[in-house]
Amino acid sequence: MSDTVTARLITRELSAGSALPELRKDAITKLQLVKYAGASGDYNLIHTDDETARRVSLDGVIAHGMLSMAFLGQYLCWLTGPESIRRLTVRFVEMVRPGDVLTCRGRVKAKELERDGQRVTLELWTENQRAQPVTTGEAEVVIA
Amino acid sequence: MGRLEERVSDPLVSRDLIGRQSDEVLVEIERGAIRKFAEAVGDTTEACLRGELAPPTFPTTIRIPIPGVTYDLSRVLHGGQEYRFERPIRAGDRLRCRTRLQDVYQREGRLGAMTFLIIELEGRDENGERVFSGRSTVIVR
Fold this sequence. Notes:
By secondary structure, chain A is α+β, with helices and mostly antiparallel strands. Chain A has 4 helices and 5 strands; from the N terminus they run αβαααββββ. Chain A has helices spanning 5-12, 30-40, 50-55, 65-80, and strands spanning 23-24, 85-92, 103-114, 117-127, 133-143.
């Protein structure tokens, strides 16, 4: 369903360039990385074992890039509803560590009318507590 | 990070392998798996927490090795990821999935020569209609 408040806001009021409301996530914990490893099936030990991470010249474990993409997936569901999502594309640009607090942000990039509704392209990114973008990307949603 | 779990000493993947694909695997989308994924992410989307609709990055749980494409997991970085959907993935879906090595190329980066692998994943329903596709950029350093 794409009947969220923001979906209506995007189709009726926001135009290209408009900023979207932000979603701030809780600080990432090592426990979350263990849970995400299990739930996603990504058992690369650089995400859960400090010893392995140090062996490949990291200071300690780093978060799965896919976890910060999952935050953007949640952000999209929150913005326009899970049924609206047609595409999500990201690049992983900075490492994320336990303790980091990520905030999802975005803005409207383009809107076009389609048979089933409005196809909206959104620019999305997560940034850390130092306001550095860590995962940047784009999404397409169709809002009926 | 990384879709293929086998460990080998040589991290480089030959361009000869471009186009190689996995067998088709039937993946049953389980409600419990969706819930566990949403909980791990802290995703509060109700339909996902109930295990009815898969969060958009749920296809990352579908890991199908491509024969001959192997690398040392601790030397890979995930450069980028894309998912496209015809419709959301739902609990109870039986998806016929396949991965394919779409491209391999070398680039000089900050860390020296790196190998980039583009790996595609596709899921079709039982009628053969595409439900989703994915495209991963995997960097082997």
